[in-house]
Amino acid sequence: MNFGFVKVASAIPSVRVADCKYNVEQMLPIIKEAEEKGVEILTFPELGITSYSCGDLFQQHLLLEQAEKSMAHLLEATRQYNIIIIAGMPIPVAGTLLNCAIVIHNGKITGAVPKSYLPGYNEFNEERWFTSGKDIAEGTKVTICGEDIEMHQLQLFRTPACTFGIEICEDVWGPNPPGTQLALQGAEIIFNLSASNELAGKHNSLVEMCCQHSRRCISGYVYSSCGFGESTTDLVFAGNAIIIENGNILAKSKRFCMNSQLMSSEIDVDYLRHCRMENTTFAATRNDYLSRKVTVTYIQQKRYESEELTRKFIENPFIPSIEKLGEQCEEMFSIQTAGLAKRIQHTGAKSIVIGISGGLDSTLALLVATHAADLLSLDRKSIIGVTMPGFGTTDRTYQNALTLMQELGITMREVSIKDACIQHFKDIGHDIGIHDTTYENSQARERTQLLMDISNREGGFVVGTGDLSELALGWATYNGDHMSMYGVNASVPKTLVKHIVRWYANNIASERVCTTLLDIVDTPISPELIPANENGTIKQKTEDLVGPYELHDFFLYHFMNNGYTPRKLYFIAKNAFCGKYDDATIKKWLTTFIRRFFTQQFKRSCMPDGPKVCCCSLSPRGDWRMPSDASYRLWIEECENL
Q: Which uninterrupted H or E stretch holds 71?
């Protein structure tokens, strides 16, 4: 596929125990369906040709001969297919029997990977029939269907799209799975052919383990375990097809299904490569494994040019899932609180000063401040909330600011900035009727000066309210709201601020505070630097000027965490916001994001301290270090050519 995606699939066919011909016939329509869907690599369960639960029949030559004949039929039937197929079968080698994964492309076997670790502790004691393949020497060849095939435990398969490796069932349960070594030597996707029986509670452990394995290896992980048709003499196999990308599940089958299943999705190999480059621990660990010899097999597969994704990118990647939202909002709020509490304790501040506008960001900062004071057993009166009405302040935000400060029990101050700004306009010769950048920024800087001076007078420091989204876009007045002594919201994006405030309202706040907080959440985002309209409502709406924050946060997340290019950002944004924004709108605001992100770096280069709360931060001391005068030509040109 394009944009670095590789379409993979995990299949669970219906089987009959020891009926190789039937089993292959069940695989063929699945392969045909996967080929038509543009799947590039497809895996079947462990020992899928024979079925897994044959027991002592594995030592019957007739079964082994039939398995090879059925494999030959599979090869012939898939000769015209471009898809890479991974199927399992027993292979006799020098008087021993190996449990193997066979890699097939264009009707030819390109490699065989033996199972390394054999379970000897349950009803299916594989050591009774099979030999471990972990000691097979490099260069070992085995004859399958008349062809001499390379066999090696640590074998990489390299296509024009990706490099993949294989492990088989029990391999992943060991403390040092082969997949770890394969990933460190270049495998970006690991395929696991499995036959894992069901036990109460086992499934969750299995899924968790596969996700952790994928996350540690920074890899895709495609798991296929056998299902209906296996013997139920002592165990039941429910069928599991799972596709994982760096610890996150992309697709998952239904268990205990009586029919064959095919689960497919697209693994973002570009994203995995970016994560590995960023993770220096991965590179350092890789050096420990370079002495282990790995065989590399090249498969000249034709590239699929499809741009159709079956996976769905979520609109708000910074926001946790519904199931985890409450827990993670509490955790993020606690991180902010602990960071501020440490700064108060370290500085010995007698007070902390916050500008309260009645907007989202200052509200979250105030909530954090009150809990930091409680954590340190300080009187909430040591928190000085200052509301500073100006030319654009509306009654809604003003009243919300007053109510919030009063109900939270902090010290309230009100200082109008109108007269000071009017005098300032006179001093610099600015016409008060011209509502330009000077008009707006003068108000922001006047407010910051007031807060700084009050903090000096009260022996405290100023808590900043600006958020991650504003830092990304440079949507802050330099040395105005851009500056503070500690920015508690510095790594909280705008789309997430709403959820944390709403969580607080619904779980912690008193009834009146809850009502006020929910109204603040519903208030249009605005700096309120331009006078209100004739009805006294907000005239200056930030998202009308700079673009929807949900789009900018989406761009920011994937630009920073995944290293996506503008073309790929545009592509996945169309996927995520299909039906919500048209292509022209996405392109417009993507171009705005790129331009502002690059040109506003100088503001981030001198931003105050603040705790990292989310998965990324723009602190010049932490996650993001970019020259302030870096050229954006390459990125803007790509935007213009979309």
A: helix 61-77
DSSP 575-636: HHTTTTS-HHHHHHHHHHHHHHHHHTHHHHTTPPP----SS----TTTT----TT---HHHH
Judged on CB neighbours under 10 Å (0-12, 13-18, 19+), 504 is buried
Query: What are 529-562's pLDDT values in tens digits?
Result: 667 666 666 666 677 788 999 999 999 999 999 9
Nearest alpha-carbon partner for 174 in 96, 120, 137:
120
Residue 575: partners with Cβ closer than 8 Å, 6 or more residues away = 309, 312, 313
Select from 351, 374, 356 the least CA-distant residue to 366: 356
Taking the C-alpha atoms of residue 132 and residue 99, their distance in angstroms, rounded to an integer, is 8
CB 582 within 8 A of CB 457: no
Judged by DSSP in three states, 102 sits in strand
Instruction: Give kind and range of the element (H or E) at residue 557.
Output: helix 549-562
Residue 235, pLDDT > 90, answer: no
Categorize the per-residue pLDDT at 119 as very low, low, confident or very high, splitting at 50, 70 and 90: confident
**Spatial distance between the Cα atoms of 569 and 577, rounded to a whole number of angstroms:** 12
The pLDDT of residue 535: 65
- The pLDDT tens digits of the residues spanning 145-174 come to 988 888 888 899 999 999 999 999 988 887
Task: Give me the helices (H) in 175-235, please.
Answer: 178-184, 202-217
**Pick from 552, 544, 551, 546: nearest CA to 524:** 544
Residue pair 238/252 in contact (Cβ under 8 Å)? The answer is no
Q: Are 193 and 48 in contact (CB under 8 A)?
A: yes
* Interacting residues of 69 by C-beta distance below 8 A, sequence separation 6+: 20, 21
206/196 Cα distance (integer angstroms): 9
Distances (CA, A) of 85 to 44, 151, 307, 489: 8, 16, 22, 49
Q: Which of 222-236, 248-262, 277-291, 296-310 has the lowest mean pLDDT?
A: 277-291
pLDDT digits (tens, 9 = 90+) for 577-625: 999 999 999 999 999 999 999 999 999 999 999 999 988 999 999 889 9
170 DSSP 8-state letter: G
Catalytically annotated residues? 46, 115, 169
User: Looking at the DSSP assignment, which residues form a beta bridge with residue 10?
Assistant: 43, 263
Q: How far apart are CA 20 and CA 15, in angstroms?
A: 9
In sequence order, the β-bridge partners of residue 351 are 460
C-alpha distances in Å from residue 70, one per residue of 65, 115, 144: 9, 21, 11
CA distances from 600 to 446, 542, 551, 615, 632 (A): 21, 17, 18, 21, 11
| DSSP 8-state class, residue 434 | -
CA–CA separation, 530 vs 539, rounded Å?
7
Q: What are the φ/ψ torsions at residue 632 (nearest 5 degrees)?
A: -105, 15
Residues whose CB is less than 8 angstroms from the CB of residue 334 and which lie 6 or more positions away in sequence, other chains included: none
The whole-angstrom separation of Cα 144 and Cα 68 is 7
pTM: 0.90
